[in-house]
Amino acid sequence: MSALRSCQRALQVRAVGRSLVSARSMATDSQSAPPAKATDDKQIEHAPPRDIVAADLVSGAPAELRHRAVRIFQYSRSTTQSGDAKSSRWRIDWDILPGGGRWENPLMGWASSADYMQGTRIGFRTKEDAIHFAEKQGWDYYVQQPEVKVRPVKNYAENYLYRPNKLRIIRTK
Amino acid sequence: MLRLVSASKPASAALLIKVAPSTSLAGRRTFASTSARQADITLTVDGKEVTVPQGSALIQACEAAGSTVPRFCYHDRLAIAGNCRMCLVEVERSPKPVASCAMPAMPGAKVWTNSPLVHEAREGVMEFLLANHPLDCPICDQGGECDLQDQSMRYGADRTRFHEITGKRAVEDKDLGPLVKTSMNRCIQCTRCVRFANEVAGVEELGTTGRGNDMQIGMYVEKTMNSELSGNVVDLCPVGALTSKPYAFHARPWELKHTDSVDVMDAVGSNIRVDSRGVSVMRVQPRPNDDVNEEWISDKTRYAYDGLRFQRLTVPLIKQGDRFVSASWEDALAAIADGLRASGAQGDEIQAVAGHLADTESMVALKDLINRLGSDNLTLDSVGGHAAPVHAVDVRSNYLFNATLPGVEQADCILLVGTNPRHEAAVLNSRIRKSWMHTTLEVGLIGERVDTTYGYDYLGADAKAVADFVAGKSEFAKKFKSAKKPLIIVGSAVTEHADGAAVYNALAKYVEQNKSQLVTPEWNGFAVLQRVASRPAAYEMGFVPSRKASQTKPKFIYLLNADEADPKSIPRDAFVVYQGHHGDLGAQLADVCLPGAAYTEKGMTWVNTEGRAQMGRAAVPPPGASREDWKIIRALSELVDAPLPYDDVLSLRDRMWEISPTLVRYDTLESTSVEAALAGLKTLAAGTANAKVSGAPFVKPISNFYQTDPISRASVTMAHCTRAFVKGENYGFSELSSKPEAAYA
Ligand code: SF4
Ligand code: FES
Question: pLDDT: is B708 or A10 the higher one?
């Protein structure tokens, strides 16, 4: 335990430094992006550094994993169904590998893969949890904006609304 | 009376915040006229208090409270029909269960969505629905993503009391064209498809005949469903009555890997979900995003994916004599370096052409490379693309869709100039139609006469009509002057037209004069509708030639996804490189072909016509030896002794941030301030001041909606659509579906 602590202390600086780099280059999260003002041309301030435990040291995950950006996102609602069951959790998954990601196996015609993360998806309750996890693991991440929802008010009576102008809709229902 | 109210789910609190209609509606004018009263009401759903805007349907209140109400006919984006009865809920002091979609939410009402009465009622409804529904889930394409399947598992009974000797109802299948497959026995008559066709797509021929058990859905006469949005009825249909013909029996939903991405078939940047299995894309589905495409995508977006399998460039090719020989990457890149040297191209004689499907990263890399080689000859793959566009690229608001896509619904008077949004941005067109139907929106059109799915005042075909409009000569021009939120939509083809400069000049002056309505802090009514996915990003990064460069005859030409180039514009002795994913026109012209990745195979940035940067995502690996496009250019830069300073995509995006931060501020819109927009219009007017008018009429730039880029030209489905809808021929599927055995499929 104490060994872990000491690595933690030793690595904190490195981890924080890296997360800043990732925050700059991967700032896809529009929610947190400050609205740009025309007059304000000052440098956008970095988020204050947080304590990040460098868990990747002891996680046993292959070091190559650190070179792959992860995506933090919510499942979008499927348009073929009305339910939105899976869309409240946040997930982390990996981009496919361009070369060895998948190929057709010449023996069976099935898909083979050299990518050990291709079937992995991690679920979180909140976006912050997911970000925290990615930072702990030392992964570059980007956050995909959740679905933008605007629900106009609907009313059955609108079907029978009187419109004084020329009729613009022909209902064949 | 004792009631059992189910404990609220932990997720419901989050749902409430997410959906809360009262907040999301603030500042937006909805199209429904009854929603003008913005007062809120409070009611209790399943023991939880919820506040919704007055006039909401009860089902919306239940949804806001986090209680799921099963439904078949109700859909958030269609008018309420109230004919499936699946959404029954119990309301206090109501003797019977009520259909929550057809019932307005009342202040102080107490609603239960999960009581024994509700369950019994839903079970009864389910029994009726299933009385005539065939039991063919194992061979039905909807299986696994079927509302009827799921809801009968949850609410249905385990047996039926209908044992008719005559069997179940049989309905003849309809032939709706090469995209939508019908199996009308399965129809539960929810009429979602009819309402979609009436309200969104503008196909008024799809409708119902008969009533009760004999009701049928169809086109009344033997006719195909000719709409560029018709694929959406496949999603809307809650059962398997309408399924996708090209996708029929190809995959099951649970085998598919979903990848959220962005569409590149037009410049709307529709959000899509690419469903893949193994190494191939099986289908493309829309991803709801109210800021962009709502829930719809066009048929080209949805069905052109099979073009990704044909005509692909998979290995680098070098031309020897009159044929291509495959080569290794090293040889191909070395051949280009040699070719560049041998051609003797210096400075502006090195030309780069960015085509329709070039992603932002690769265009930035190519621009940097060409600039490093001492050239400014950055050309766009369009008519007149060899010169800088008339609107210049210095001010963003001069070439972007400033009104934003959802903003179109706020306009009360729209002038379309030289554009047919139905084919250039089908999803945007449905927004105009929605607004036109529900408000008193007036539309005027200058350009070629087209069927827009909404009525318009025709003002003329050429630049003279624009001048007349500016002078206020027509009835429509007067209406436009007095409109509160007028909107001018200028098509991208205007830039390519001989009179483009004159039109921009006239309109820029008009907008400046009427800035009190057209350019205000809340509203910018001057919008340019781009039709090509790469164009807004190209303008944004300044992928345009300098005046000197545009007059230079190139000796070395680098075609990046450029497949619309006029072969005559390429000098005979020039050394031509084509980089792209399809063996289309551009590859034929090339001396060396480099295989790139298509949009489903790379996670790249796309900027839509509003200037919204969105990140696509790779769903499947690129085939063969093809590589991500920016990497090819990066590798080439080493061989031509102009190495680019970025080694990974993150540092390339840093470079993009240096060029323009908006390129990497994903999913957000940077609106232009009033001052900047007006200054932009001033420079636009000054830059086009002595333009001549030739009087040639505007022609629509897209004559065949289904085939506009290498992917859709390689697609078999799109070829069928061209035959069926553009040429009006028999498209080859109908013999198939009239065979007797096809009725079971
Ligand atoms: S075909 Fe589908 S969408 Fe149309 S009415 Fe029947 S069940 Fe509803
Ligand atoms: S959803 Fe309410 S009646 Fe169909």
Answer: B708
Q: In A37-160, which ranges are continuous DSSP H helix?
A: 56-59, 127-137
Q: List the single range of A60-74, B365-379, B645-659 with lowest mean pLDDT.
A: A60-74
Mean pLDDT of A109-114: 86
**B705 in a domain, yes or no?**
no
Last residue of a domain, one of B477, B499, B529: B529
- Tell whether B18 and B124 lie within a shared domain: yes
Specify whether B558 is located in the same domain as B644.
yes
Could you tell me the pLDDT band of residue B205, with boundaries at 50, 70 and 90? confident
Contact residues for B626 (Cβ-Cβ < 8 A; gap 6+): B312, B313, B314, B581, B595, B596, B597, B601
In a domain, B289, yes or no: no
Closest CA to B359 of B23, B596, B577, B86: B596
Q: Report domain extents, chain A.
A: 46-147
Of A81, A97, A171, nearest to B198 by CB-CB distance is A171
Q: Are residues B582 and B658 in the same domain?
A: yes
State pTM to two decimals: 0.87
CB-based contact, B80 to chain A, within 8 Å: yes
The residue to which tokens 């239940």 are assigned: B62
- Give the bridge partners for B576, in sequence order: B557
Q: Is residue B355 part of a domain?
A: yes
CATH number at residue B615: 3.40.50.740
Interface check B143 vs A, CB under 8 A: no
Are B17 and B97 found together in one domain? yes
Does the beta carbon of B630 lie under 8 angstroms from any beta carbon of chain A?
no
CA distance B337 to chain A (A): 25
Domain A46-147 has CATH 3.30.160.190: yes
Instruction: Kindly identify which residue of chain B lies nearest to residue A100, measuring between CA atoms.
Output: B621
CB contact under 8 A, B25 and A151: yes
Query: B244: which chain A residues are within 8 Å (Cβ-Cβ)?
Result: none
Could you tell me the sign of the dihedral formed by the alpha carbons of B420, B426, B428, B430, in that order? positive
Residue B295 within a domain: no
Tens digits of residue pLDDT in B447-489: 999 999 999 999 999 999 999 999 998 999 999 999 999 999 9
Residues B153 and B66 both lie in one domain = no
Mean pLDDT of B33-56: 82
B490 and B507 housed in the same domain = yes
Domain boundary (B663, B698, B732) is at: B663
Report the residue from B57, B70, B675 with minimal CB separation from A156: B57
Alpha helices in B443-573 (DSSP H): 463-470, 475-482, 492-496, 500-513, 515-518, 535-540, 547-550
- B15 or B589, which is more confident? B589
Please say whether the beta carbons of B216 and B170 come within 8 A. no
Domain extent, residue B554, equals: 317-392+535-663
Measured between CA atoms, the residue of chain B closest to residue A71 is B617
For residue B100, the CA-to-ligand 2 centroid distance in Å is 7
Burial class (CB within 10 angstroms; exposed 0-12, middle 13-18, buried 19+) of B233:
buried
Which residue ranges have their beta carbon within 6 Å of ligand 1? B 187-193, 217, 236-237, 239, 241-242
Residue B186 CA: nearest ligand 1 atom is 7
Question: Quick count: other Cβ atoms within 10 Å of Cβ B350?
Answer: 26
ipTM of the predicted assembly exceeds 0.90? no
Residues 6+ apart with CB under 8 A from B719: B706, B707
What is the distance in angstroms between the Cα of A2 and the nearest Cα belonging to chain B?
A: 36
Task: Indicate the number of domains in chain B.
Answer: 5
Same domain, B410 and B463: yes
pLDDT digits (tens, 9 = 90+) for B134-159: 999 999 999 999 999 999 999 999 88
